[in-house]
Amino acid sequence: MNNNREIYLDIKGDFPVFERELDLVYLDHAATSQKPEMVVDVLKEQMLFENGSPHRGAHRMSVLATEIYNKGRNAVREFIHARRSEEIIFTKNATESLNLIAYSYGLHSIGKEDEILVAISAHHSNFVPWQMVAEKTGASLKYLMVDEFGDIPDSEISKINEKTKLVAFSWISNGIGTKVDAQRIIEKAHEVGAVAVVDAAQIAGHEPIDVQAVDADFLVFSGHKMFAPQGIGVLYGKYDLLDKMPPFLTGGDMIEYVSCEGTTFAKVPERFEAGTQNVTGVRGLTAAIDYVLSIGLDRISVHESALTSYAVEQLKKLPFVTVYGAESVEKRGALVIFNIEGIHPHDVASILDEEGIAIRAGHHCTQPLMKHLGLGASCRASFSIYNGTEDIDTLVKGIKRVREVFGYDD
Ligand SMILES: Cc1ncc(COP(=O)(O)O)c(C=O)c1O
Fold first, then answer.
1. Please, which pLDDT band fits residue 6 given cuts at 50, 70 and 90?
2. Which end of the chain has fewer CB atoms surrounding its CB within 10 Å, N or C?
3. Residue ranges of the domains in the chain?
4. Residue 4 has pLDDT above 70, yes or no
5. What is the pTM of this model?
6. Where are the alpha helices (DSSP H) in 245-344?
């Protein structure tokens, strides 16, 4: 029951999945979002009537596809407040965006005397690429440790020093849910001339992003976590950095001129977009951005904060549940990490699934973080605009049921 109409959005009706899966309580938005009908309608229109290969032909279908692609780039530019549309590169997902930075920037700009600093809370996709860069270049890889609340304290930020060439972190951690002070970390990186790589996968579509205000050098996210289809991601990079970077993938569409003697490459952004591009994904992402903006990021973030507070409050009332993460809701993304005493998270998730409740259990692709926090695994409930307080109430009932199944009588 939505007990406060002014705070909570009532938007489930936009998502047909909930009409078919009547008992589904979807609390796994942080893994991937459900899709609103409006985005799927736009995709259908594009695939049936606006399909062509972008950048490649003079005919009308190709021109149409190119227009859709370019409009999408501009929509993303506006969405994250980038200076120029050339600073937006389309990729497959956040993982590919981070690999692009690692291969095209990291391997070419970092040397063996240098240090790379990665937050221990980073998703594996923003962790493993830096291990690869450190191995290949001989650079030292150091870590920004988080405190018990998942925050990166000043004492850790001060590890950034003259040797540091790159600092990588999640703005909101998918593994503990804490939102760090991105601006402060970036400022500190810039003081020593390092670049900051911001993983915005858990903030995009939840709160406004202004890459100029935070002064991110690189920022990445995946479309599928914000109502777009899977297979489309974004890399933002400052133009001056991108302009100096060699290509990541080579082939068609990213060249200027090819001869038997050699190849010259296209300018940014095409240099980083080899092969036939995912116009359908770009159209879907554009529709998802329109959808999010039509609701309003401020309203979305108020709804999700209220829901997250409610979830933390309700879960903390259960004496056998431990809730992890930040104390204040301002420092939390729309997710809660918790464990149930005596029951493995995988068992919790399986039993909840029988009740129609979808949560995530495991290490959440943040094994170094889990180890640092002394957790083998944990449960994660994550929220979106299509969730209401009734979903949290069902989760709490489900957790009580899990305890019953395991023979606890509390
Ligand atoms: C914080 C964070 N970064 C990166 C990723 C990777 O996203 P993708 O698998 O779409 O590349 C995820 C996905 O769970 C994430 O939560």
1. low
2. N
3. 12-30+296-405, 40-293
4. no
5. 0.97
6. 279-295, 297-316
**Contact predicate 150/324, CB 8 Å:** yes
Residue 384, C-beta contacts closer than 8 angstroms, at least 6 positions apart: 26, 29, 33, 34, 304, 334
Max Cα separation, the chain?
A: 77
Distance 224 CA to ligand 1 centre (A): 10
Q: How far is the CA of 202 from the centre of ligand 1 (A)?
A: 8
Mutate to test the pocket of ligand 1, among 176, 202, 206, 226 (most ligand atoms within 8 A of CB): 202
Q: Tell me, using a 6 A CB cutoff, whether residue 14 lines ligand 1.
A: no
370's enclosing H/E stretch is: helix 367-373
Q: What b-and-e string marks burial along 72-110, b requiring 16 or more CB atoms within 10 Å of the CB?
A: bbebbbebbebeebbbbbbbbbbbbbbbbbbbbbbeebb
CATH number of the 12-30+296-405 domain? 3.90.1150.10
Do 232 and 278 touch, CB atoms closer than 8 A? yes
For residue 212, CA distances in Å to 95, 217, 311, 393 come to 22, 9, 33, 40
Q: How far is CA 255 from the centre of its chain?
A: 30
State which H helix or E strand residue 391 sits in: helix 389-405
Cα separation, 208 vs 81, in Å, equals: 9
Mean pLDDT of the residues in the chain:
96
Please tell me if the CB atom of residue 271 comes closer than 6 angstroms to any atom of ligand 1: no
pLDDT score recorded for residue 56:
75
Domain spanning 40-293: CATH 3.40.50.150 = no
